[in-house]
Amino acid sequence: MPNKARANLENLYRIFTVPEAPDSTLGAIDQAISDDVTGFLQTHIVAIERNLEEIEANFSSSAIPEEPTYVSEYTEFVKEHLVAQSVHTAAPGFVGHMTSALPYFMLPLARLMTALNQNLVKVETSKAFTPMERQVLAMLHHLVYRREDAFYPPWIHNSQAALGAFCSGGTIANVTALWVARNRLFAPEGAFRGIAREGLGRALKHHGIDGVAVLVSERGHYSFGKAADLLGIGQDQLIKVRTDANNRIDLKLLRQECRRLQDKNIRPLALVGIAGTTETGNVDPLEALADFALEIGCHFHVDAAWGGPTLFSDRYRHLLNGIERADSVTIDAHKQLYVPMGAGMVVFKDPTALSAIEHHAAYILRHGSKDLGSHTLEGSRPGMAMLVHAGLSIIGRKGYELLIDMGIERARTFADMIRQHPDFELTSVPELNILTYRYCPQAIQQTLAGATPELTARINALLDQVCQLLQKHQREAGKTFVSRTRLRTTRYGEGITVLRVVLANPLTTDEILTSVLAEECQIVQQPEIQALLQQVAEMGTAPGLTTG
Amino acid sequence: MPNKARANLENLYRIFTVPEAPDSTLGAIDQAISDDVTGFLQTHIVAIERNLEEIEANFSSSAIPEEPTYVSEYTEFVKEHLVAQSVHTAAPGFVGHMTSALPYFMLPLARLMTALNQNLVKVETSKAFTPMERQVLAMLHHLVYRREDAFYPPWIHNSQAALGAFCSGGTIANVTALWVARNRLFAPEGAFRGIAREGLGRALKHHGIDGVAVLVSERGHYSFGKAADLLGIGQDQLIKVRTDANNRIDLKLLRQECRRLQDKNIRPLALVGIAGTTETGNVDPLEALADFALEIGCHFHVDAAWGGPTLFSDRYRHLLNGIERADSVTIDAHKQLYVPMGAGMVVFKDPTALSAIEHHAAYILRHGSKDLGSHTLEGSRPGMAMLVHAGLSIIGRKGYELLIDMGIERARTFADMIRQHPDFELTSVPELNILTYRYCPQAIQQTLAGATPELTARINALLDQVCQLLQKHQREAGKTFVSRTRLRTTRYGEGITVLRVVLANPLTTDEILTSVLAEECQIVQQPEIQALLQQVAEMGTAPGLTTG
User: Fold this and answer.
1) How many alpha carbons lie under 13 Å from residue B270 in its C-beta half-sphere?
2) Between chain A and chain B, how many beta carbons pairs sit less than 8 Å apart?
3) Alpha-carbon distance A163 to nearest alpha carbon in chain B (angstroms)
4) Residue in chain A lying closest to B73 (CA)
5) Do A83 and B112 lie within an 8 Å CB cutoff?
């Protein structure tokens, strides 16, 4: 073997056998994260946002490097160009999205998970991880359905059944739920061997219908759109029912939509209730939806990706009453179970429901095996369930209750701050720990109170621009972060742009929330925004446009 | 606040703010993994397999613990009941599945990824991770399609396009490819607004066809079965074409199947070529498949989840010739890119292909944004692309080439060992680094050489049992591990059970492979297996059953 090749080979063995030295660049980062992850993130992530195009310049080569690079050299690149330009999602002032701080124990446990590198698709590459994942699913099932203790032993480790499916996230969980619903509606029957075998075209023919529909409120997560497309249902048949003033599905309109479907010979496949809408955190009337699903005879799914853990709280659990009647429920662990990104779950009331999507293969997932891959959409998967297991065990029901209660109460406090502030308008009242608002100075609020629909629309269009600029500048400054969305509100009819706040980080204090509003009041002083507000002010005084 | 509640609250803040002390149980594990992960795994994973039912007893409660637990107490549980009973997938003697050792740098980088906890669904929660993931996809695109350098700049960071989709694994990658193929076949056209909007039922009507089909060899991965079900195509329309003696799709039979589909008014949606079948590692004739896909006018997908990285090798790249003509290609990073579990990718020749499954939402994934979630099946996702980026940068093209070449050459060495051993039968010749074989003593091989089909079937049925028991005992002993599957071979007609070996761990030596066979020769001495072999021996001497 030539010398060069031998040297390459030796280097290759080294990277598989010799750990990073503690004083190496990567070793030092590793130690810094172990010692104080908060400090590490604060020190290494640059607060002020750089232009995305500038960042892209560092990731612009499409060629795979020909020669190996030293780990230390690569680590320097990562520090400077990746870590520095990433988002401090754990910061207590980052209240715009659903990513929050992680409990400290998650980090060493996540590393243990990576080191073990188990593959949950089959027992042969996961052994104890398989029963552990099944236990986690049983625990979540128990949280949702509160079945008696005797219910679980026959099912929890039963190879013929599954209390739920572990997924990479809520989207796969929602897709799995609707997949099961679709396959159960079109189950084998007489000469028809079921949709899994024969496909959707023949399934529709067999039932003599022109389509199936999924009904969800207009606040439904975008994953239902993906699911409707993926499953062949079509997004036209994803019926987005309008919400009431509290962002909950309007039951009267729901009934109307169902009649319309009947006229078109389209059968309702699933009714989806939301427990914690992504944008406003509201909870649909789950009891009423359960009744209605029963009445029209369709699958009842609850998307509790966000709000599911509210069930930990003795005080607020009742908000989700009726969830125990759902055929399936999605809960994301990487949201309010405080697990790192990449962990969702869907549980099914009926432990045999998932057999509607069961798949087998000769080299794994054999019939009768306990391989989890036979009941999941995904194949090879990491042992993320371990981190959920750790959270449930270490934090416990009471710990999660405390987190949930704190979040909901902090949202109420923040809503009060907004209400009391003359220049902000609360655009959705928090039911859980999410709320929306917008900047709308007192004078404009008064103008709007007496404005014609036309003036209202013109003012709101300008306020939308204010909102958009405000959010952008705040994000770029990097001190605090809120997100934005567009909501149709009953007050204004059409959609308005609003700021959105999610309060799940236990380290977010009232002082930080005060500073969020203070910073926004500062930002709107910028000439660009003042010019927009000036335009609104002028509109208010123009003749013929106010009714007051 | 009562004292108890205050204490709970303080504990809760602690877990979010105070790292594990280095001398704590979890701190010590963390340090041990940093210092020497190989040693840690060897020390902590119990080799001898415990009964799964016994393990399940430790994961049998469905109740979420009410009270919090100390991290140290939980860690002891994890050590004893989870880690000890997991699978040492990185062991050089674990050659049965596709999980191998990881380069050392992956661990600290994976921890960095967890600590940053970015969410790749949107730029607002991932910033530099978004361009980095796009770069990784461009690099893989380049590896597959080898487009000129000037091709990439207009696409790599283009918000209207995507060179591929990052996924949790190969299953989602294959599903995404077929989803795109389906939606492109049923694109908007005249009054028909496309399948994404109108659904599969109306799409079929619009085209006046009774169904669509996916064609793949019988060695195709089980994910295609899931995809056919999920996408509404139906598994009956997943046409599993028989393979030739080299486990490659039989082109004549493929043509026949297509004619049969035509007679049934079913249109071929996609033709799938496999570059490295899961069970035998063979590569379909990709050039010929590309020609045929062109001829019948359907999407050409290549599942290179396993074999894709062969493209790194100057010596073996030619085995995949024709892959550059595929419309889409799946490559798993958690296989031969040596990244921890949970990283798959699919790249598309046409950078606008993924717009067929584009989805938007008001609060993220806005039109014109660079949010990756608009072009992926999954929603929230971790920053796994960073580990792929690290592998490509640190190991480099030449490092991966070395790994690939070593694996292929080791498989040839092992195949020779099997051929030369009188009591083993090589059941598939390795083309890449996967092979299959079975225990079949010399005398039985001779009997089989002259046996009638009936005798052959009876002998093989008994040898199947031998194979099954052998694999089970070997796994349970925990020294080395091979997997097993069932294969239809041209030699024996029907399926036989075989042992399967995957040689991707660079630490697997020839000595270990010798010991694998030696251990198997020992295991078959067990009375249970000897009794089966005795039965076969008696059959061979029974009159009228041999033709020789």
Assistant:
1) 33
2) 570
3) 11
4) A394
5) yes
Tell me if B64 sits within 8 A of A139, measured CB to CB.
yes
| Identity of the residue in A33, A77, A196 whose CB atom sits nearest the CB atom of B111 | A33
Chain A residue with CA closest to B205: the answer is A201
Which helix or strand (DSSP H or E) is residue B536 part of? Answer: helix B527-541
Q: Decide if A176 contacts B213 (C-beta within 8 A).
A: no
Please determine, for residue A547, whether its predicted confidence score (pLDDT) is greater than 60: no
Give the distance from residue B545's alpha carbon to the nearest chain A alpha carbon, in angstroms.
30
For residue A39 the two structure tokens come to: 């400090």
- Chain B: give the shortest CA distance to residue A270, in Å: 16
B483 in helix, strand or coil?
strand
Last residue of a domain, one of B46, B65, B86: B86
Work out whether the CA dihedral A372, A374, A376, A380 comes out positive or negative: positive
Q: Cite the beta strand spans of B111-253 per DSSP E.
A: 164-167, 211-217, 238-241
Contact flag B397-A13 (C-beta cutoff 8 Å): no
Coil vs helix vs strand at A150:
helix
Q: Is the domain of A116 the same as that of A59?
A: no
A3-61 pLDDT, tens digit per residue, is 877 888 888 899 999 988 989 999 999 999 999 999 999 999 998 889 999 999 999 99
Per residue in A448-487, pLDDT (tens digit) is: 999 999 999 999 999 999 999 999 999 999 999 999 999 9
Residue B534 contacts by C-beta under 8 Å, 6 or more apart in sequence? none
| CATH code where residue A528 lies | 3.90.1150.10
The confidence band for A494, taking pLDDT boundaries of 50, 70 and 90, is: confident
Q: Is residue B145 part of a domain?
A: no
Assembly ipTM: 0.96
Domain range enclosing B485:
399-541
Shortest Cα distance, chain A CAs vs residue B544, angstroms: 34
Name the residue among B526, B460, B437 with its Cα closest to residue B95.
B437
Choose the final residue of a domain: B54, B86, B118.
B86
Q: Does some domain include residue A249?
A: no
pLDDT, averaged across chain B: 95
Q: Provide, as residue numbers in chain A, all residues whose Cβ is less than 8 Å from the Cβ of B26.
A: 105, 108-109
| B82 part of a folded domain | yes
Amino acid at A6: R
- CB–CB of B210/A201 below 8 Å? yes
Tell me which chain B residue has its CA closest to the CA of residue A229.
Answer: B196
Q: How many domains does chain B have?
A: 2
State the nearest Cα–Cα gap between B256 and chain A, in angstroms.
21
Q: With an 8 Å Cβ cutoff, are B506 and A229 in contact?
A: no
Q: Is pLDDT at B366 greater than 80 in this prediction?
A: no
Residue A196 CA to its chain's centroid (Å) = 28
Inter-chain CB proximity B108 and A30 less than 8 Å: yes
Contacts of B428 in chain A (CB under 8 A): none
Residue B284 amino acid letter: D
Q: What is the mean pLDDT of residues B200-208?
A: 98
**Cα-atom radius of gyration of chain A, to the nearest Å?**
26
Cα B153 to its chain centre, rounded Å, is 31
Among A112, A135, A183, A487, the strongest candidate for a mutation testing the B interface, having the largest count of B CBs within 10 A, is A112
The answer to whether A270 and A300 have CB atoms below 8 angstroms apart is yes
- One-letter amino acid at A495 equals G
Residues A370 and A454 occupy one common structural domain:
no
Contact B66/A403, CB-based, under 8 Å?
Answer: no
Residue A59: which of B5, B90, B132 has the nearest Cβ?
B132
Same domain assignment for residues A385 and A436: no
